[in-house]
Amino acid sequence: MSDSKIIHLLSNPRNISTALMYSFAQRSDTGVTDEPFYAYYLNLVPVLHPGREEVLASQPHTLPEIFDAIRTEAATHPVVFLKNMAHHLIQMDWDFMLPFSNILFIRDPKQIIASFSKVLEKPTMSDIGLEQQSRLFHFLNERLGHPPLVLEAGELLKNPEKILSDLCAALEIPFEKNMLRWDAGGRKEDGVWAKYWYKNVHASTGFGQPPSGEIVLSEHGAELYEAALPHYQFLFDYALKA
User: Fold this and answer.
1) How many CA atoms lie within 13 A of 160 on its CB side?
2) HSE-CB for 192 with a 13 A CA cutoff
3) Residue 13 has what pLDDT?
4) pLDDT for 65-94, tens place per residue?
5) Residues 6 or more apart from 161 whose CB is under 8 A from it?
6) How far is CA 170 from CA 92, 152, 242, in A?
7) Are the beta carbons of 229 and 109 closer than 8 angstroms?
C-alpha cells in the first residue's frame, strides 16, 4: 500500500486499544488512525451502537475509500498506527493486511464482557471479537508462514515499558520513552464515537494499573465467557509477557 510501515492493531472492543493508540501518537515518526472500518461495519450490521448515525455520517463506507484514506495517511508519516476492531473486518478479502505489521490485541474476556455490558446489555461473541481474532491469527499464520504478534492488555499494564520495548523491537522500530505518557483529554484523531466510549482514556495520562477486584457476570455474560475463554487461552500462549 505504501513504503511506510503500517502497524495494524486488531483489538477487542472494551480493551485499552485507545490508550495504545495515544501511546503510539506520542512517537516522533508516527501518525495514528482511529477505527477506519467502523462505519463500514455499521453499514453492514444492524447493531444499535451509541452514536450509530453519527459514525455512519463521519466515515466512508466502502473499502476503496477507506484504503485511499490509509494511503493518504501513509504518505505523510514513516509509521502509521491503525487502530482497528477485529470484529469490524467482515465481508472482505483479508489479503490487504498481509504487507502490514499486524498485532492481535487481546484482553481477558471476563473483563471485556463486564465492560461491554455497561453499554450493550447482552453482547454477543461477534461483539467481543475473540473468535474473530482466532480466525485472523490462523489466517495470518497460514498466509505469512509465522504467527502474528499478540499483545495482551493485562501483561501490558503489568510493565508498560518492557512490553512496549519488546513490541517495538518486534516491529523493528525504536522504542521511544515518551510512549509511556500523554496529556489528558481527547485527540484530534479520535472518532466521533469518543464521547460514548473514551471517558476513561481521556482522564488518563498513561497506562494505569491492572484492574483488581472480583467480576460477577450475568447468566448471559457467564455463558459468553465460557464460549470465549478457549479463544483467549489459545491466543494468550503467543502473547508478549511482562
Assistant:
1) 17
2) 13
3) 86
4) 999 999 999 999 999 999 999 999 999 999
5) 177, 180
6) 27, 15, 15
7) yes
